[in-house]
């Protein structure tokens, strides 16, 4: 009961009205309007006047039943508000509302931005995930294809296209080095500079970076950099791109490229061609030599044609490898950062391009007889001012350089024979496994080093170099005589091999007869 009655007890506050204490009593159930009217009456203020009530410290006191009570020692005061004060209060209130609204708006925009960023991140993550899956799938497909190729190659009679490192179908070119090439710049000694000009140069003593520096030196020494206004950095990039596009075959590799190019440089000096040919001709000779076996797959034209490889189909069985070497060469030159002929007049470049193609195509041994016969017809009446004569000479020169290993000292030449036979045996093994014809000179069961070399030196090398000797007699001692010596060397080896074979045969027959008598 006490609790119930206390909840309905009236509330008492004390006001300061003109310096006098005014006691005001009201029910706890009065509305704020009733309280305001009561306070106005107690303070002698008209009811329509806007008022506010403050405590002794000036803090606002709410005018509703929940207002705190006070004592006569702590009087509340009623303060009437003027129109200006009301306006100020209203303006302040509006400003506060505006600021709050702006803050809410910003908060909402930030949330929207966060949502948008989150969505975009999610999309990107999804895309990355999908791209990652694609890469994984591509790698998986590549591995599957490789396994399939290996499996097919291991089966008898299965044929696999001879792969090309340089694929024209995927729309990609070689990846050039756009940075300044950084292979070490070797300062060639005077001894090396002189040795480079001779066929006796030992190509086995040099690393790839050293061979690149030697090739670079040749272009500078012959005046080709100046003649074609080559950017020296572009020359470096081009040489690196060339090196990267020779495969690691036993024979047809970058060292073979350097070997042929060095022999060309040697013949230019030995035959004093600087006085007989133009700088453009020498640029064509050197560049064709550098590019002549680009991306060689290690399997010759006979294999390409018999196996109906992609290259054979592409070039209609007409010098498929040589056509491929040309195509790769000019794909590299089509890259601005590798184009050593970038500053050559377009019309002049067309002629240079055609001349380089002509020389590289001339290295197809299937055309050996045709080209040599043509040169033989001209050599006795050779005219260095006749363009047809000069073209024929350049074709014979690149052929000489391409197959010139036996011109070099025996200790330099003989390892090349081992490399060539290794490549031949790889091809003949594959031809046997695929059911293709096998050339006797490539069959590991039939060929020996002497038999491989004697016929080639006697019927291919010596006749060609002796024909060139008619035009340049100075090559006899340095180039032709070493070929004759090499022929004699291998004929002696063959006699030894034949004698050993005959002795072994007699021994076997003797053992066989002895067994029958018993």
UniProtKB/TrEMBL annotation:
Documented EC number(s): 3.1.4.-
Name by which UniProt lists this protein: Phosphodiesterase
Assigned keywords, A-Z: cGMP, Hydrolase, Metal-binding
Binding positions (AMP): 252-256, 293, 402, 453
Cofactor(s) demanded: a divalent metal cation
Organism from which the protein derives: Pogonophryne albipinna
Matches recorded under Gene3D superfamilies: 3'5'-cyclic nucleotide phosphodiesterase, catalytic domain (1.10.1300.10)
PANTHER family per the UniProt record, alphabetical: CYCLIC NUCLEOTIDE PHOSPHODIESTERASE
Entry similarity comment: Belongs to the cyclic nucleotide phosphodiesterase family. PDE9 subfamily.
Location of the active site: 252 (proton donor)
Family annotation (Pfam families): PDEase_I
The reaction(s) this protein catalyses: 3',5'-cyclic GMP + H2O = GMP + H(+)
